[in-house]
Design a protein that fits this description.
Layout: H1 2-16, E1 30-33, H2 43-70, H3 77-106, E2 110-112, H4 113-146, H5 151-154, H6 157-183, E3 192-193, H7 200-204, H8 212-245, H9 250-278, H10 288-313, H11 315-327
Parallel strand pairs: 1-3
Antiparallel strand pairs: 1-2
Length: 328
């Protein structure tokens, strides 16, 4: 705690360049990411751990992309959407982890105002895109299991491109609205962000102007998009499970469930961590340490686990990866 207090004071002095108190600043030129500042004794081990996780994320998702691109049997809607998921995971980790690794290595935790806005924009955009994409993937599994004979007629290449493009467009549009409303606020109270990256709740909490509209916008727009995507995923799986239960043979049930088991596991992992963080007002009582842990789970760990889940539970992906490695 003594080290943390001295670190905060040092950062404040470095940023203000004089004797003025940071609380008297009329504007904030940069923010200080304090999420990992209370772990100075283990910053080098943490650097190694997060660097390994980041490499596994890039290599794992890159291998999924390469396998889908080179194996003709995987040129189907299900794997087309999976390729999009792998891209999102790679981009999402690259938005936060490199800066976090730099902060751990150098202890220079400052990030410019524009850099913070860009980091928040791309992070929220990619997370939103993943929410929509998981809903599209659930719908794809619903059509495949509930209407197997009409699947190729319903899930055409054109529709797949339209659905994936729509998820990316919706995610980035949603993020643009939130980013603009967040950084239109006045920041003059403090520039210490209690997180290891720039995120909406922590940035809004630093504003010295009214945050009511920004918080309501985040709740209303985020709630509409998020609940719509969640309900699409939930209803799709209700129909999927009911269809599987009507299958007479045990082997038929196993095969039907195996086609959506990986996606269902990814959905549970993502929603179990992300919803808790975003579906609440930033001014509500919460534990910063708990928030940082949950943010780390869905921001760093989940992108690493997704390719592992799909490669371990999907025989076609395993076969394509094995074939790719053997040929290489």
């Amino acid at each position: 705690m003594v080290h943390l207090a001295s670190t905060v004071q040092a950062n404040r002095k470095a940023l203000r360049g004089g004797g003025d108190d940071v609380h008297n600043l009329s504007t904030v030129a940069q923010f200080v990411l304090m999420g990992l500042s209370d772990l100075p004794k283990v910053r080098y081990p943490l650097f190694v751990v997060f660097a390994i996780i980041y490499q596994i994320t890039l290599v794992g998702n890159g291998a999924i992309l390469l396998a889908i691109g080179t194996e003709k049997k995987l040129h189907t809607p299900m794997y087309y959407f999976l390729a999009n998921l792998s891209l999102i995971d790679m981009f999402c980790s690259s938005t936060t982890v490199p800066k976090m690794l730099q902060n751990l290595l150098t202890e220079e935790r400052g990030i410019s105002f524009i850099g913070c806005a860009l980091q928040l924009y791309f992070l929220v955009a990619l997370m939103g895109t993943e929410v929509f994409l998981l809903a599209v993937m659930a719908y794809d599994r619903y059509v495949a299991i509930c209407f197997p004979l009409r699947y190729t007629l319903l899930m055409t290449k054109v529709l797949c491109v339209q659905l994936s493009s729509g998820t990316w467009a919706a995610g980035f549009l949603n993020s643009f609205i939130h980013t603009m409303s967040t950084f239109k606020l006045s920041f003059c109270k403090s520039n210490l962000v209690d997180q290891y990256y720039c995120d909406i709740p922590q940035i809004v909490a630093l504003s010295c102007s009214s945050t009511y509209m920004a918080e309501m916008l985040a709740l209303v727009i985020g709630g509409i998009f998020g609940i719509s995507a969640f309900l699409t995923t939930l209803i799709s799986y209700i129909y999927i499970i009911s269809s599987i239960l009507r299958i007479q043979s045990v082997e038929g049930k196993r095969k039907a469930f195996s086609t959506c088991a990986s996606h269902l596991l990814v959905v549970c992992l993502f929603y179990g961590t992300a919803i808790f963080t975003y579906m609440r007002r930033s001014s509500s009582r919460h534990s910063p340490a708990r928030d940082r842990l949950i943010s780390m789970l869905y921001g760093i760990i989940t992108p690493m686990l997704n390719p592992i889940i799909y490669s371990l539970r999907n025989t076609e992906v395993k076969g394509a990866l094995r074939k790719m490695l053997c040929c290489g």
